Amino acid sequence: MLASENFPTHHFKESIFKPYSTSGDDLASVTPLTAAAALVASTSSPADSSSAVAFETASKMLTTTNSNNNNNNTTSAKDDLSSFVASHPAAEFEGFIRACVDEIIKLAVFQGTNRSSKVVEWHEPAELRQLFDFQLREKGESQDKLRELLRETIRFSVKTGHPYFINQLYSGVDPYALVGQWLTDALNPSVYTYEVAPLFTLMEEQVLAEMRRIVGFPNGGQGDGIFCPGGSIANGYAISCARYRHSPESKKNGLFNAKPLIIFTSEDAHYSVEKLAMFMGFGSEHVRKIATNEVGKMRLSDLEEQVKQCLENDWQPLMVSATAGTTVLGAFDDLAGISDVCKKYNMWMHVDAAWGGGALMSKKYRHLLSGIERADSVTWNPHKLLAASQQCSTFLTRHQQVLAQCHSTNATYLFQKDKFYDTSFDTGDKHIQCGRRADVFKFWFMWKAKGTQGLEAHVEKVFRMAEFFTAKVRERPGFELVLESPECTNISFWYVPPGLREMERNREFYDRLHKVAPKVKEGMIKKGSMMITYQPLRQLPNFFRLVLQNSCLEESDMVYFLDEIESLAQNL
Ligand code: ABU
């Protein structure tokens, strides 16, 4: 029997699973004949005259499948039915899925993050095109070929979870976040209505409320928040909410015939503030870049000066986007001081704490963000300093209604108000996205596993390593810090090779120093030994920027980074 006589057939039409079987889950007990019947049901319409032929073919194929069951199910009927494979994990895919997941665990999760493995196997684009089969074809590939492609995809990808990947503002593979991410991919929800994402809707509410409480918004974290696709978009939400609060009519009329609204941010702020302002029709001219001081913080005197100039031009100061942890230097703006200026000129205060927000988890380091509790809104990305998997980005605001007021359009095909449950839990209309991943789960799961204390310990470990690295750079010949006392876990420094050390610090010296970091970077990528980024900043020549978020790193790793840079630069 395929299933209970009373079970409606449409429930298993595309599957050879035994629904509601009481005799255990042994897939091998599905007979070829019943499996073939199910396959035919899934591939032929009842009126299809070729059904009988299809039945016979499928029956033969499934006999092969069953005889291969002892072989992990890796070769199956689907190899021969590649012109049609239903979007459904039918039983014969179990072996394939398990084999693939095993390989991902072995090669990407463990081998790929082992210190003895390469961070990257580098190839030029033309060479990589030859090495990897990118071509899409009329006919599908066999499962063996697909597994080979999976292995090669891992082989040719950068292992961003490797301890020696210190290149960007994300790294590491948190085991709990990884499992969380896999689960949400398996469940594939879209967090816009309670009816399709009940648990994740409540989980978002819980996590965002706790984050607001940690930020320090009034009344134990009043306000609202959302998970969004990256810090850039979160910063865009800030601009959108600020605009709405300033001119609610802009929701209907846009920016036409209105006074120019001005956004202030520092010259070291993330580029997304300008990008999103352009995207939203403000124009880059209306994003005023405020000078930073010698340690990378926004100069309040310049801010106030530019606000006054803007008023003199009859432009409207709208908001300040302060930064807590700048991308390059890791500087924290004076948030309390910026809040005073915002109050004085009635501007929205946003804090882009995408990078540095993680420090709020630590009693020892949260003082860096002192004043954030006075902000109107905050961007905070757990996928950065807290090392949740990409992407996990939040926008938090102290204003309870503004997101919904500002963005809702009340689409009746999704947010029907006459549903049988409390539709205030259909939270999707306050987002600008429609479909939306449940990024909350990986973060909630790791937070649940580690506790707030565990997240605090993580943050304090990476800060401790950053301080150790800074001390080593200070004392080691040839290494020079860009900032004598970096505030966050990004440490910027130069390496001056022996051949340059005796030179006078003139134009020629700086020109030559400018070329050191790119050459060393090329060497490390081709060798696969580590990945660290470099950049110039204003008049400063190229320097390295180490970024730490992976709490598996130890003091010996810090020494390795310095040794490796020194060794790669020995012939420069
Ligand atoms: N939003 C992050 C900027 C890129 C990086 O430096 O890692």
TrEMBL record:
Highest taxon of source: Eukaryota
Pfam families in UniProt: Pyridoxal_deC (PF00282)
Coiled-coil intervals, chain numbering: none
Known cofactor(s): pyridoxal 5'-phosphate
GO BP, one annotated term: visual behavior
Residues that bear N6-(pyridoxal phosphate)lysine: 384
Signal sequence residues: none
Keyword terms of this UniProt record: Decarboxylase, Lyase, Pyridoxal phosphate
GO cellular component terms, A-Z: cytoplasm
InterPro entries given in the database record: PyrdxlP-dep_de-COase, PyrdxlP-dep_Trfase, PyrdxlP-dep_Trfase_major
Assembly with partners or alone: Homodimer.
Protein name (Swiss-Prot/TrEMBL): Uncharacterized protein
Organism: Drosophila erecta
Lineage: Eukaryota, Metazoa, Ecdysozoa, Arthropoda, Hexapoda
Encoding gene per record: Dere\GG23885
